[in-house]
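Justification of resources, computational component.

The compute hours requested in this renewal are based largely on the per-chain cost of generating structure records like the one below. Each record pairs the submitted sequence with a full structure-token output. That output is archived, and it is also reused by downstream analysis tasks.
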Amino acid sequence: MGEPYHIPVLLKESIEGLNIRSNGIYVDLTFGGGGHSREILKRLGSNGRLIVFDQDEDAYKNRPDDNRLTFVRHNFRYLTNFLRYLGIDKVDGILGDLGVSSHHFDVPERGFSFRYNGALDMRMSSGIKKDAAHILNHYDENDLKQIFYNYGEIKNSGRLVREIITHRHTKFFETTDDLKIIAEKAAPKKERSKYLAKVFQALRIEVNQEMSVLEDTLKQCPAVLKRGGRLVIISYHSLEDRLVKNFIKTGDCRKSQVETDIFGNADVPFRAINRKVIVPSEEETERNSRARSAKLRIAERI
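The structure output for this chain reads:
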């Protein structure tokens, strides 16, 4: 395996959460730098199997040379289709680390970070048609407001979008610096970096349709997990965590309350393993600052 370019978050806790059987079949929805996958492979025997998803070319180049691993170069929203294609009916565990790879943030030309100037791209895959620049240059005012308010939780999204509209009337957005300069006009002085991070996060989520992808994928998990199989998800912002939390509790990403029949029985597909969300230790966040916002939830298929 190539050297991992992403420090895996909550590695010990998430791998333990999978409760790995040596001859089991497991799925890593987000291969990234391969850190979690490498730990799964260490615990699998010769008859074990690991299916990994990642649409990014750099991740594919970093794949391990291991005959127990199958690399799927597609978005993980096609989980069921590819398992069926591979002749797999049920799996023993599914792991998803929803964070963006450190590698993506550190490569300027990918456009994920305001720390470097580069093309305003933010696509996880070159197959995605609309990049961040297209969204800023062509989406209407109301759509932009919704993106920044819903995905970035930016309270003054109206002010931000007015600055964006004014700018694009004279010059289209092309680089991360173009966006950074305009966003700073709307940013509170004492929260500049935090504000910019939210702006870039919101655009990235829209570019890659991250919320709909997550919801689509979670809906597939009950059908492909064996009884007793584990679902392990690491999220990084409240929007994702809310979907995961609701799904584990109710079986529906949009519902926070369990529905029961006339006898008071609830028909839910999962049992939460950790009632309280698991977060990184102080030691881990000191070692890896990008772990600060991580939240781990583990569930077992009933």
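Residues 109 and 118 are 5 Å apart (CA to CA). The chain has a mean pLDDT of 93.
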